[in-house]
Predict the structure.
Amino acid sequence: MRNNFFKTIVIIFICPLLVIPGNTGSTKNQENYNIIYDDALALSWDDWSWTDVDWAAIDPVHTGNHSVAVTYGSWEGVYIHKSDVDTLGITHLQFFIHGGVTGNQNLEVYMNLEVNGIAQTGPRIQIPAPLANTWSEVQIMISDLNPTNEIVTGITWQSTSRNSQPTFYLDDISMVSLEDPDGPTISDVFVSPRSIPADESSTIILRSRVNDPHGSEDIASVSVDARPVGNGIVQLYDNGKSNDYLANDGIYGASITVSTSTPASERRLLLTAEDLEGHQNFRGIGTIYVITPPGGETPSVLPQQISYGTNTWSFTPGEDWQVNSNIPWNYVYQRITWGWESLEINNFVSQFVQQAWAKNYIPLVTVYMMRGVPPDCGEGGECYAQKLQNAATVQDYLDSLERVASEARGTKPVIIQLEPDFYGFMQQLSNLDNRPPGIVPNDPSTFPVALNKIGYPDNLAGFGRYMVDLIHNTASNALVAPSASEWATNSDPQSVTYISAIDMAKKTAVFIDQMGGSQADLLVVGWSDRDAGSGLRPWWDETDYETPRPTRAILWDNTLSKTSGKYLILWQVPVGNMSQDNTCGHYQDNRAKYVFDHPRDLFDAGIIGVLFGGGTDCMTQVYTDGGFVAQQAKIAYATPSTPDGFEASVPDGPYISLNWNETTDPDLWKYKVEYRLLPDGSTITRNVGRKNNDVLRLLFSGLWEIQLVAVDAMGNQSTPTSPITVDIVIPGMIYLPAILQKSP
Ligand SMILES: [Ca+2]
Ligand SMILES: [Ca+2]
Ligand SMILES: [Ca+2]
Ligand SMILES: [Ca+2]
């Protein structure tokens, strides 16, 4: 009988501090739980405590088998850390506390915040002294712990006493959204794109189902607070004309843009639904990444829109998977390792490149030779730093690289991808505490290399630059693309705040720039080289609430592109999909689907090419995936479907309202309204983003013809809708004076 004295304390901090014994939680439903600790810390939460804490105490427990036993010394604290906690829409921090045999401990709780990249402590909330031998429930409003909605990186329970204190216990720590049971419920939130340029024309479509226990007529408003992206409160409507499907179907919709003054950053927006009596409920929509314009120019010989390819090919006529797919792929890639010259196929690079050109693909050759070039010392920065001090090794390597370039020579473009992991390993080594003597973090010029080439310093910077120049000088048709690794700064951009992740990407761009990146043409990035269903890599949250998530990867890629001034190829994207059964060759993954559902997110961030391919044995391949990648690529390359339901309102002076049904193509980019004055006016085009409505202003009286086209991520346009003709009558008296006033 551990809980025989169960009692609830709810702390509601509507200043001044108010402690209400008894159960005051009864007027709210607990809808959304984010469990932080039940019998162990949840995934991604780490123990950073500076006190005596046992995370697996067995007596007393509130629920389950374990609780947290805490024995404070002077001013000590229990500190749990998570890189970037999304608290938007969360109303309370909730936990249970038990005073042990003594009770009466003195402690306070606060959130660890990060404000403009600097760690800060949120407001400290005093906890009522826990009772002896009793579990009490504590609820603290998030708005008291984090009043200005900063990035949350942890929660701390700290002793407020200079003396040691007797052991007490915590259990069932969670963040909850206490919903008003009378208020409208928000569900099925849809947001696309999730990464968007701050250009005030690209549009995010936001949709949500909203129901009210008193019927839909009780719903007064559904809105999103778009101030974090430079807008105000934006209303969502269920009128059939607001990207909300049908009128009165319970689905509300809106479109929002991002103001040009919004910096590259992660932003979180809050949905609010309110009924006629003022009952409100809230829901965060996950993380939006605000894109910065990517760096440099796309190489003129490459496709100027997002394009796709795979690692699957064959010399044998009739057996090439890409050719047989009847999809106009742009790329094909193949990896070569040390000793490629002695492969069964003579002149392998030449043969691969030539057959790719013959099939109208741009070949990408992944050069992965650093690991194998003798002396073999395994994989990693320490080994590579050693072998690069051997003059014979360096020359052997460069001779082979020159043969690669020479076999790739021709009149069509070829991409030579340099050394996956190599740049990452070297930068990582420079960031280790036990880096070799003389090595300076993030400075490749401090690694000695036995290069011995006139005009190039004998260090890693000189070696990297020589590799790029050697290829360019040997094959003027070759584009050189060093490989960038997310982990190169010896930390994971998915497990820090976005501000730190931006900093990491900048450092990696600068490191590669110094190693010839500045002279290169592109950079190659990767999202993961294994299907998550294999258990070899973590799942990413495709809804972009929790890290690891795609928006964070796109932030890193975008920052790399911006800083380096290079566009990117996203390489070796896992092929798996959710219809697979997690057996060899059939592992599940969700990244390929994210790519095909968010092509503009990638392209606007700087990714011009996406190459699919399982990274090792047993990973899903495009020929074992049940046809998913082929089917999605087919849609990507196909022209979009023509929107239906295109209609115009009765003209209101020069204004005419247009609306249409949204198309369902996953790769939709935007709609364009095209209109002209009959009979022979020239066509005017108006981009309306992804909105399915527009108000057009027609400047002259007369018959106007209006059409609509859908545009996909590649820029393919649909067949136009059947034209609508409208007769505009503008009383000249109204507009003539205005025009005259503007004349000098
Ligand atoms: Ca427990
Ligand atoms: Ca209601
Ligand atoms: Ca609707
Ligand atoms: Ca398409």
